[in-house]
Structure formats: structure tokens, C-alpha cells
Amino acid sequence: MAAAPPFHVSLVAVPGSLSSPITGLYELLTSFPVVADFYEGVPAFSPFAVEIVGQARSTITAPSGLPILVQRSIRELERSDIVIVPAMAVETGKQRRHPELAQWMRRMHERGAILCSACTGLAVLAETGLLDGRQATTHWSFAPSMRQAFPDIDLCIDEVLVTAGEREEFVMAGGAASWQDLALYLVERFVGAAASRAVSKFELLERHAGGQTPYLPFSPRTGHGDSLVRESQQWLGNHLSMASPVAEMTRKSGLSMRAFERRFQRATGYSPIAYVQQARIDEAKRHLERGDMPIEQISWEVGYQDAAAFRRLFKRIVRITPGAYRRKFALPDPS
Fold this sequence. Notes:
This protein is an alpha/beta fold. It has two domains: 209 residues, 3-Layer(aba) Sandwich (Rossmann fold); 103 residues, Orthogonal Bundle (Arc Repressor Mutant, subunit A). A seven-stranded mixed β-sheet has the order 5-2-1-6-7-11-10, with helices on both faces. A two-stranded antiparallel ribbon has the order 3-4. Helix 5 links the parallel strand 8 and strand 9. Helix 1 packs parallel to helix 6. The longest helix is centred in the C-terminal third of the chain and has 19 residues.
């Protein structure tokens, strides 16, 4: 830990910052006096002194139109224990948009601060250059532009929470609402597991133990310009349950197996068999979300006669079981 409590937390607000993550983090990290009335192991005082900081004391307008009050300028802050850059609306492919803020964050890091980001807030943290060669995460839809803008960062989009650095001084959360996972992690790290559990119960929050993977859509490349591979992709969409779709796609292509595999991988980023597995599991997700078809029948519908093998593959790709996926995402019964 960088200091004794109360730990100073800087919530960074810049033009484009979303209001809900900032207010959510602010209120959760200062909720201890209320939570302590109901649960043991929670301090009656707030272990965090939270401020909303930015380039200058001002009121900025979030993309939603709601105001965000910047309480302190970064020029006034010589030290902070935890710096958090929450989600923001960003222009894809842009970088180096906040040089003064990035320099201040580097200075805070040198003085012992933990630097955190949530969702697209990673763009600002990446500007410091401190994540080069390290693992990080952000919202999965932001990954392509993030990789283009900061190719030296190793993005782990499957994960909701990633820590990096010799003292785990970089903490990054993925999806839009994963600031909640970040907050619970910080409470556990700085206050204790009992306090984190209590806050989670009081706020009705759940950590995303399966990472971002259960939420990821299968979005294969289709604009790659290879018409032969594109025809194979279209054909597969209508023949997922076929026993040997890779062999049939290869036959239809007129290429050797090795030539077809190389060409398919180059165009889509997946080997043919991995692509088939992803497409089948994506179709299985739709069945699980939209009806009560038995899992054994879903397995058959997407091309797997062995339901046990299907369950193993589903858990390997999605990181939760088909039953858990259905409980999490199935459409509710209108009655």
C-alpha cells in the first residue's frame, strides 16, 4: 500500500467521461459508514478520500448531458494513492490526446500510486507508456482500435480484471459496468476481503468470475476480400450441424487441406476447425437464450452427437457451463 488510510483516490474526469462510472465509484468507495451498520468487518469511517480531478476545476458535461464537477486540478495534486480513469466516449484509433494528464499520472506512479482504468479509460492510461509490454484489458468492442493505437500493449479481452507491474500497480477493468469489479477489488486490496464481501452484499453486486468471455459475440471477419473464404463462411452458416463441415468446405474450395487451412486462417484469423467451433457455440448460445430446448438436443442441433463433449467445448470457449449460461442470459418468462 502506498500509505495508511484514508487512501486518496483521484477519479479522473475529462471531456467525454461518462457520468455513471464516476458517480458510482465515488459513492461506492465512500459508502462504508452506511454498510458498517449492517455487516461486521467494515470500518465505520471511509478508508478512501475520493476526489474528482481533471485538467482544471470546472464543470464538464458528460456525453449524456449530465454535469460532472471537477473538484481539483491535477496541478494542485502532488500525491495520490489510487488514480482511476473510468469509461469515456472516445474516438477510435486516436491516441496521445491527454499529454498533460499522462505526464501527471506518470509522476503519481513514480510516487507510489496505483494506476487504474475501467473500460475505455484504458486509452488515457495507455498514453503514459507505462503499459507497453504489459497485459491490459478494456471493453471488447474497443479492442481493435486500441490495438491499432497502442500495439505494444498485450490486450487480454477475455478478462474482466487484469493487474500488471512488479507491485501490481496497474489495475484495469474491462466492460462498461466493470468499474464495479474494480471497486470491489480495491476494497479487498486496501481494506480486506470481509469489507469487500459486505459492500458487494449491500450494493447487490456480483463479480464477473467468468471474465468477459460469456458476453463476447462471435464476430468473424467478413470484409477480408477473399471471395472463396467468404463463400465458405456463408455456406457454413447454413450447415453447422453437418458431421464434417471442414472437409466439405475444403472439397468445395478445390484446394488441398493445407492450402485451404492457410488461406482460411489468413482471411478470418481462425483455423477452419476453430471457426466451426466458435460458430457452433454461438448458435448454441442463441438456443440457450431463447428457449427451453434441452442441452442434449441443442448439442445435436449444432453438430455434436456427444453432449458431454459439447459441454466441455462450451465451457472451454465461454468459460461457464451451458446451464450457467442459460441461467444468466435466458429471456424471462413473460408470465
